[in-house]
Amino acid sequence: MASVRSRRDQRATTGPRPPSGPAARGASRSGRRGRGGLAAYLVAGVAISAVFVVPLLWEMVRSLQPESAIGAPLSGQSFSHLTIANYQALLTGQDDIIRNVVNSLIVAVLTALLTALVATLAGYGFALFKFRLSGLAFGLVLLAFMIPFQAVLTPLFLELHFLHLLNSLIGLALFYTTFNLPVGVYVMRNSFLQVPREIVDAARVDGASVTRTLVSVLRPLVLPGIATAALFAFLFSWTELIGALSFMTNDSLFTLPVALSNVETGTYGAVNFGLLLAGAVIAMIPCILVYVALQRYYVRGLISGALKG
């Protein structure tokens, strides 16, 4: 009796024995595979992130070097004297780069808002309302994908001149909006097609008007598509050069790409690569901020219409 009690106390002290046999070996292999998969995922994620992050960091570091060091071969001493002189020279020079940044922001924000608004209304109509030749009309919108605006630059110049919109930030924003609408309409139509038809029917049964249904019922559901259309329009108008260079002749209305183009081509003297790199860093900051702010909507908006459309 004492020996039985002793073995019982020993089992209670040591706890249950770990499982053994084929099940235990299978669980161990599964755990190792899970840890190996996580490690591979982390390594791949870091490698892919480095492809995008390292060039940005490299550009930022090079913009902090003196102009003489940028043009010289790389060495350890090249990174020992970092300075913000390039930014100071660019921001306090004879040409006000801040004014160019403000002009670009006005045009980009106005283009994004107009594109999101018009594309939402057009996508709502194409997706939920059937009318005669609606398919043909949507096809004509998509046809604009294949027409680069450089091919119709002269007619556009004459049209803006007739409308007195040359040398106008509003005219430039309208021009950018026109050529961003095909992408925006396509994204928004597919976003509305993803919404179950029963939601729209329920809103109509409850007495909601067409506008009320769009603003109160459907808007939260298609927000990723709206963000995607706005982001595309913002990035396009922020980085576009040819249109701004063609339709703007007043120095005070130049956008940032035009100002950086002048620096690059040496309009203000010899090409200063330090100023050019500093300007490029300034130009990419709003793009990064807008993308980070809208990225959770952007990915969802890109796949809108994967199942319908």
Q: How are the SSEs ordered, and which strands pair?
A:
Elements: H1 2-14, H2 22-63, H3 67-71, H4 85-91, H5 97-128, H6 134-143, H7 153-162, H8 169-194, H9 197-205, H10 210-218, H11 223-239, H12 242-247, H13 256-264, H14 273-302
Helix pairs in contact: 2-14, 4-14, 5-8, 5-11, 5-13, 8-11, 9-10, 11-14, 13-14
Structural write-up:
There is one protein chain. The protein is mainly alpha-helical and 309 residues long. 73% of the residues lie in helices and 0% in strands. The longest helix is centred in the first third of the chain and has 42 residues, at 22-63. It is flat and about 75 Å long. The termini are far apart. 28% of the residues are buried.
Which key phrases capture this entry?
309 residues; mainly alpha; flat; disordered C terminus
Q: Helix proportion of residues, in percent?
A: over 70%
Low-confidence stretches: 305-309
Largest sheet entry: none
Distance between the termini: 79 Å
> Topology as H/E string?
HHHHHHHHHHHHHH
Q: Could you tell me the mean pLDDT?
A: 81
How would you classify the helix and strand content by structural class?
Answer: mainly alpha
